[in-house]
Amino acid sequence: MFEALSSRLTGVFDRLRGRGALNETDVIEALREVRLALLDADVALDVVKDFITKVRVRAVGQEVIDSVSPGQQVVKIVHDVLIEALGGAGAVPLNLAAVAPIPFLMVGLQGSGKTTTSGKIALRLNQRLRKKVLLASLDTQRPAAQLQLAQLAERAGVVSLPIIAGQTPLEIAARAMEMARREVFDVVILDTAGRLSIDTTLMDEVKAIRAAVNPVETLLVVDAMTGQDAVNTARAFNDAVGVTGIVMTRMDGDARGGAALSMRAVTGAPIKLTGSGEKLDALEDFHPERVAGRILGLGDVVGLVERAAETIDQDEAEKLARKMAKGTFDLDDFGKQLKQITKMGSISSIIGMLPGAGKLKDQLGDKQIDQKAIKRQMAIISAMTMKERRTPDIIKASRKKRIAAGAGVQVQDVNRLLKQFEDMSTMMKRMNKLGQKGLMRQGLGALMPQGRRPF
Fold first, then answer.
1. Which residues of the chain have pLDDT under 70?
2. Are the CB atoms for 399 and 366 separated by under 8 Å?
3. How much is the pLDDT for 455?
């Protein structure tokens, strides 16, 4: 998400920073490129106009033109306006300040990920906030929709409303609220039916349910990959039922990102959560300032640290670090390290949170890090005996064939893994031998295997 936009904006601002002084013409020319980049990213036209106007008013002032680093000042202004467009500083939490049971109404088009998102929110409320959650499917249109939500509830460790065939969505909603009051639930998540497109029947049904349960949160779930269509969907739902918050799904895709930049301006409602992938824990708070930083190539180091803290076993990480420092790191440790990394999400999403991520990906070019390759490496290590993992030198031709067959890969894949591990071991031994002072004096080049250079 945002990769193309980030790459273009970074190029514009790199050129601005490269100039010692700026005049008004330079700023206006740069903003013209910013405008084209935003339009190419599928940002709504009226949002682009408002964005450029706000930046221009601030950027052509004398305090920018006469500043020590005018290019950097313009970048800061764009960053600040981006944060405003995305909803202002700080994540907006789900509203739980109401008398229980608190109804959450999930709305959106079919295929937006609404049912899966309902399960993700249930898991989040249950695990993080210790809330007693009831999931109820009001979708009587899509085959097996109610069964799907019941299965998600089981995976999330929460209760789902028992299915009674033949009831209308309004009857199901009333029964869910009655059960929640009787059995003292904190939150009721009502998953409404979607349609392939917006129509009168859909809106009338959602309006009736909203009027009956008076939800504290009406959360619109939109697919970020649909771009401008997502913006149109948000506008229609907001006009019909009033939206209190937006959840954007498939944020790990290669969409241009314009929908996220348009949502707040179009609906007035904040993006509260973002989803990526089908895993129930793949749901994150939306931080406008962090997203703005990623768009401008400034990274999201805070988010990366938070993700690591949530997913990485601290004791295991410290134990691995000690073994690496001593040079006793083996293939079993390597497998554990790979497992820790995969818990943090896709490699591309991790790289995207690093400062200068766009330039790093440009340097990698076609050498994109394949998530499947990591899983393949883990499978190869799993196919080894403990003795082989701890003493890789004993892995000769016959063992390689057995390991490859056990992992479902080719022998050359096993050779490739062993070569990578050998290079890593060599680097760690050199690091141990050089020590901190030697490393600072000779740089990273001293760690690389002979004939290789860091990209």
1. 1-3, 17-22, 61-71, 252-257, 297-314, 316-318, 320-321, 323-327, 341-371, 427-455
2. no
3. 33
- pLDDT given at position 452: 44
- 340 in Cβ contact with 349 (< 8 Å): no
Distance CA 96, CA 213 (A): 16
Distance from C-alpha of 289 to C-alpha of 79, rounded to nearest angstrom: 8
* Claim to verify: residue 12 and residue 132 sit in the same structural domain: no
Q: Could you tell me whether strands 283-285 and 187-191 are parallel, antiparallel, or unpaired per DSSP bridges?
A: unpaired
CATH number of the domain encompassing residue 52: 1.20.120.140
Give the phi and the psi of residue 139 in degrees, each rounded to 5.
-90, 100
Phi, then psi, of 94 in degrees rounded to 5: -65, 140
**Distance between CA atoms of residues 228 and 132, nearest Å:** 37
Same domain, 153 and 195: yes
Write the CB contacts of 302 (distance below 8 Å, at least 6 apart in sequence).
Answer: 290
Say if residue 256 is in the same domain as residue 388: no
User: What's residue 320's pLDDT?
Assistant: 67
The Cα–Cα gap between 108 and 280 comes to: 19
For position 444, what pLDDT does the model report?
A: 36
Q: Which pair of tokens denotes residue 125?
A: 């409320």
Q: Which of 298, 325, 354 is the last residue of a domain?
A: 298
336 is a domain residue: yes
In the chain, count H helices and then E strands.
21, 8
Q: Are residues 132 and 278 in the same domain?
A: yes
Q: How far apart are the first and last CA of the chain?
A: 24
Output the CA–CA distances (angstroms, integers) from residue 375 to 9, 368, 382, 453, in the order listed.
34, 15, 10, 26
Query: How does strand 271-275 pair with strand 283-285?
Result: antiparallel
Q: Structure pTM?
A: 0.68
Could you tell me which of 108, 48, 123 has the C-alpha nearest to residue 78? 48
Predicted local confidence at residue 150, as pLDDT: 94
Are 310 and 397 within one domain? yes
Q: How far is it, in rounded angstroms, from Cα 114 to Cα 220?
A: 8
Domain hosting residue 229, numbered range: 102-298
